[in-house]
Write a structure and sequence with these properties.
six-stranded parallel beta sheet; single chain; alpha/beta; Rossmann fold
């Protein structure tokens, strides 16, 4: 049997962190983050990074290790995630991959391997300029003419992924969808148990998101963002919800209350996109946080992991 990797996904504010830590405590596990913004140092409150107390001493990998000025690619993430899994397994511990960045998770589950490709900085800058001038709908339409399969999975606000799809084709002459098909020809060396957190009643999830934003503000999000103002953040870091929305506030164009409302709205929209992305993955067993209490969800996950481990040892 292949070694086990537990995967926990779901939209923002669904409770992934708490569940992953409780599972890690019970099964001697270590956590690998699959969050494209928690990789950055000094971006703690706005990315809902768990505090030292909240981790209960459970090791967390691929979190808080880059400066906001640094770029980080999917290729780098997959290489780092595989390295972390191998390291955790070598110490006879359970790897638990946790996060809401769908591209990271699905690429890892499908054993995507990416090769180096040439970079055309002038074309990249032109794409950024076109997106700002023409808008997401026009750029998504442009992508659909080249790679309709990829475009069908994206939304006009998925700026990074839209531009990436256009850039990949420009640089290589092969669509990103075709590259992904070729890259997933080799089966993953791991076996996965995938758990997803959701809410049957979206209003419950949105309420949790709104409350999280309020908690972030009370914890000092404004000051955290203020300290990042003079740093030339990377293209990736600039996409973080909870940070860029303050630009208009610091420019004196909007009130703090309006910024908070905008963060809540964009976080809710992001949660919708996360759910749409993850619903395509048939390996996920879903739990509704509004229908089941936390202990029910935790016990169900524990039962499945324990059963898998028992089968593993019986077949060794």
């Amino acid at each position: 049997m292949k070694p086990l990797v537990v995967v926990i996904v779901g939209p923002t504010a669904s409770g992934k962190t708490k569940l992953s830590i409780e599972l890690a405590k019970r099964f001697d596990g270590e956590i690998i983050s699959a969050d494209s913004m928690q990789i950055y140092r000094r971006m703690n409150i706005g990315t809902a990074k768990p505090t030292e107390e909240e981790t209960f001493g459970i090791p967390h990998h691929l979190m808080d290790f880059l400066e906001p000025t640094e770029e980080y690619t999917l290729k780098q993430y997959l290489e780092d995630a595989n390295r972390c899994v191998q390291d955790i397994l070598s110490r006879n511990k359970l790897p638990i991959l946790v996060g809401g960045t769908g591209l990271y998770v699905s690429s890892f589950l499908n054993n995507l391997t990416l090769s180096e490709e040439p970079v055309d900085e002038s074309y990249r800058a032109a794409l950024e300029n076109d997106y700002e001038k023409l808008g997401g709908e026009v750029m998504l339409s442009r992508l659909s003419e080249i790679d309709p399969e990829l475009a069908a999975r994206l939304f006009p606000k998925d700026k990074k992924r839209i531009l990436r799809g256009l850039e990949v084709f420009h640089n290589t002459g092969i669509t990103q969808s075709e590259q992904n098909r070729r890259a997933m020809e080799q089966e993953s060396p791991y076996q996965f148990l995938c758990f997803g957190l959701t809410a049957e009643d979206r209003a419950v999830l949105y309420q949790r998101i709104d409350q999280r934003v309020e908690t972030m503000m009370e914890a000092g999000l404004l000051e955290e963002v203020r300290l990042l103002q003079d740093i030339p953040c990377s293209r990736t870091a600039r996409q973080a919800i909870g940070y860029r929305q303050f630009d208009s506030y610091f420019a004196g164009e909007t009130s703090l209350e309006e910024v908070v409302d905008q963060i809540k709205k964009e976080s809710r929209n992001y949660a919708k996109r996360q759910l749409t992305w993850f619903r395509r993955e048939k390996r996920i067993q879903w739990f509704s946080v509004d229908l089941l209490n936390f202990d029910n969800i935790l016990n169900s996950c524990c039962e499945r992991i324990a059963k898998h481990i028992e089968v593993w040892y019986n077949n060794k």
